[in-house]
Amino acid sequence: MPADKVFHLFDRADQLEQTLCQQMNRTLRFRFVLPFFRVVSRLGDGIAWYLLILALPIISPAHGGPIALVMAFAGLTGTLGYRFLKQHLVRERPFINNPVIHCGTPPLDRYSFPSGHTLHATGFTTILLMTLPMVGLTVLPFALCVAASRVILGLHYPTDVLAGALLGVILGLSAVTLAGLA
């Protein structure tokens, strides 16, 4: 494929992503959207996951302790991984690059690729779906809301969220497999 066609393809993909990002961000004009996704985002900072990890031995006395340790290990690994990637890939957040996009809540760091919130949400949910399926299904809607909140609040592009989700699933599958819980 000639270079000009490749450039055009990437330019078109970037335009589509910008449009999708703007459309999702525009939902903030509805009165209930901003407060809802701010709360989801704040809980996705770690609070909800820490509480769940602490509750797992109570929820499942037979298996909760080892699963909680796997989740804690995966959380630490995910944090180190996404921070490394963000520092080296340095993609500015949508609200910085596009003045039309409103920042719905202050970001935890400067760069957007990949989404750490989404990485953790999908990683933890994957671990739970593989080990405690009913608990995993219970947290799945929250994990999906965390992922959506990142674009709606203007903090991430859709590809940041997709990359975070992919990394989270890989991390969750790997953690369960390495721990022998699969």
Automatic annotation (TrEMBL):
Give one Pfam family. Answer: PAP2
Query: Which Gene Ontology terms of cellular component type are present?
Result: plasma membrane
- Give the UniProt keywords, A-Z: Cell membrane, Hydrolase, Membrane, Transmembrane, Transmembrane helix
Catalytic activity entry: di-trans,octa-cis-undecaprenyl diphosphate + H2O = di-trans,octa-cis-undecaprenyl phosphate + phosphate + H(+)
Domain Phosphatidic acid phosphatase type 2/haloperoxidase, which positions?
Answer: 67-176
Q: Where are the transmembrane segments?
A: 39-59, 65-85, 127-149, 161-181
Localization, UniProt:
Cell membrane
Q: Which GO terms describe its molecular function?
A: undecaprenyl-diphosphatase activity
Q: Give the EC number(s) listed in the UniProt record.
A: 3.6.1.27
SMART domains in UniProt: acidPPc
**Membrane topology per record:** Multi-pass membrane protein
Q: Report the PANTHER family cross-referenced here.
A: DECAPRENYLPHOSPHORYL-5-PHOSPHORIBOSE PHOSPHATASE RV3807C-RELATED, SPHINGOSINE-1-PHOSPHATE PHOSPHOHYDROLASE
Q: What protein name applies here?
A: undecaprenyl-diphosphate phosphatase
